[in-house]
What does this fold into?
Amino acid sequence: MSNEPTADPVAVPFESLSAVAQELAAAERKRVPVLPISDRVSGFDLAAAYRVQSINIDKRIADGAVLVGHKVGLTNPAMQAQLGVREPDFGQVLDDMQVAADGEVSLSDFIAPRIEPEIAFILSRDLIGPRIMSADVLFATEAVAPALEIIDSRIADWKIKLVDTVADNASSARVVVGEPRPLRGMGLIGLHGRMERDGEVIGSGRGADVLGDPAAAVAWLVNTLAEFGQHLKAGEVVIPGALCASAPLVAGSEFKSDIDNLGSVSVRVVP
It folds into this structure.
């Protein structure tokens, strides 16, 4: 299947945010990317981008998907440099985006997928902003777990600005969460994690690389969601951002997130 952009930057008409949402949804469904929205839609700002994200998430939920968590993206300087974006964003995690721990994914389900290791939070209490601090996040966290996030851009060649990735549900695709471990005594800032491909370490980082503290990234999310009248709920999973730069997903390989004192989780990639 061709991965050439389907949209002409001049000829594509955009009459509403709904039309932008429909274009992105079609790109994900057909696995054919589109050219950057930021280059084609005058006045497409951050508020408009989050509205587009919401339109598509609401549609998927109406069609039967279930909201199970949230992601924070672009919290690591390495990822910001890799994608040329300088501030965090957030997206939603639906049940059809979950992959069983040590399960498999098919490369054919994506456009230009990349993978990154993360520390997942499992919440035991609601978190409602604003003015949430890292300590509040830790108090509301039932457990943490090693995780892998597969990101994918419905924007051609990953040529994104912040508004492009936000509209595209923060470039999310799949989430793999390992066995949860109690948070008590776990110093998240100092945790060292590695990403392996077929047993070879291809990236590493510490909790401190995620906005200074993974819990601070979750606090940022809670306080930002408050601006949209939303909050985090008990039982939800939050992935706060990558420990290191992402790597391309490759068919025939196994990728692993291995985090000191937290354990590991892997995913196999088939064609």
